[in-house]
Design brief:
Elements (H helix, E strand, L loop, with lengths): L2 E6 L4 H12 L4 E8 L7 E4 L2 E4 L1 E2 L10 E4 L3 H13 L3 E4 L28 E3 L3 H16 L2 E10 L6 H15 L18 E2 L11 H13 L6 E8 L6 E9 L5 H9 L4 E3 L11 H4 L5 E8 L8 E8 L3 H15 L1
Parallel strand pairs: 1-2, 1-6, 2-5, 6-7, 7-8, 9-11, 13-14
Antiparallel strand pairs: 3-4, 9-12, 10-11, 12-15, 14-15
Helix pairs in contact: 1-8, 3-8
Length: 333
């Protein structure tokens, strides 16, 4: 059974990934609307052997639409999602606009798919860094509740969109040619450099990306008491985020138990080859659906063998964004 589908923000980095994943997974639809800003209206896009004309995203775009996959920016989501719901559509929103709204389910299908049915027209896709962290942590948390998480992220340019990815490429060429790098998408040079995530700081010195991970994880796990602290960093990688995750559990747990739990966990693949010092890298995760996990080891600083360290890599544009939203849409069908 198909549906009448719309993609909002179809020309952006996540919008392009929506198209790739919908085609790969043969998502069933009867009609498709491609929506974007007025700048992109009129552009022609080839999809599954048919040519589509991009339409301008307006409040009148959603007549006879069943599902909207939206990645058009938080401000535009707040403006247009209510109009889509009023027209009878369900919006799967990939922005920060509705994630912490108590009336909007925040969904990772491997973790809390049962919450989808609670929607009132809008379903939120979590932040990319949150998804990549918690897909492998969830099966461990179910087996042995996590008391505390310490996360350090190594986030690729793709998290800031297509313009940022192109800027990384451009800056690399400029620097190798002895030129001054052009900084527009990012406030600082990203090529050959590392800097704190370029989101706004709060009064305590934490940036918005770090606080998203803290708040979203508590909501998705339905565990507001879990202690989480994060440090989010931009690195000169084109796509796929990496994260160092330190976990403190309620009861003792060994690295072998962690490997056993993760070896059958949905959406997780292990790359944990100590003999060859071979662990997950962005190039492993790029273009892949799973979150890759390795460097699984005991944290001896936590008493009673209750501490574990993990290293993960996940494609920010796929599982961190478009794939997660499409999986939600599949469950809506």
């Amino acid at each position: 059974m198909g549906c009448n589908l719309a993609i909002a923000g179809v020309t952006g980095a996540v919008g392009q990934e929506f198209r790739t994943i919908l085609e790969e997974r043969d998502f069933p639809f009867d009609s498709l609307k491609m929506l974007a800003s007025s700048r992109s209206a009129g552009k022609k896009i080839e999809f599954k052997g048919k040519e589509y004309i991009v339409e301008e995203l307006t409040k009148n775009s959603f007549g006879r639409v069943d599902i909207v996959l939206s990645s058009a920016g938080a401000a535009r989501s707040k403006e247009f999602a209510p109009a889509a719901v009023e027209a009878g559509a369900v919006v799967v929103d990939n922005t920060s606009a509705f994630r912490m709204d108590p009336d909007v389910p925040l969904i990772v299908p491997e973790i809390n798919p049962e919450k989808i049915r609670e929607h009132k027209g809008i379903i939120a896709n979590p932040n990319c860094s949150t998804i990549i962290a918690i897909v492998p942590v969830w099966p461990l948390h179910k087996a042995n509740p996590v008391k505390r998480m310490v996360i350090s992220t190594y986030q690729s340019a793709s998290g800031a969109g297509m313009k940022a990815m192109l800027e990384l490429e451009e800056q690399t060429r400029e620097i190798l040619d002895g030129k001054k790098p052009t900084c527009e998408a990012f406030p600082y040079q990203i090529a050959f450099n590392v800097f704190s995530h370029n989101s706004a700081l709060d009064a305590d010195g934490y940036n918005a990306e770090e606080m998203k991970m803290v708040k979203e994880t508590g909501k998705i796990f339905d565990c507001p008491d879990i202690a989480i602290t994060c440090t989010c960093i931009r690195v000169p990688v084109l796509r796929a985020h990496c994260e160092s995750i330190n976990l403190e559990f309620t009861d003792p747990i060994t690295p072998d138990q962690v490997r056993d739990l993760l070896s059958t966990a949905p959406g997780v693949s292990l790359i944990d080859d100590r003999k060859n010092n071979r662990f997950p890298m962005p190039i492993d995760a790029t273009g892949k659906d799973d979150v890759f996990v390795g460097r699984i080891r005991q944290d001896d600083s936590v008493p009673d063998n209750r501490g574990i360290n993990l290293w993960v890599a996940g494609d920010q544009l796929r599982k961190g964004a478009a794939l997660n939203a499409v999986q939600i849409a599949e469950k809506l069908l």
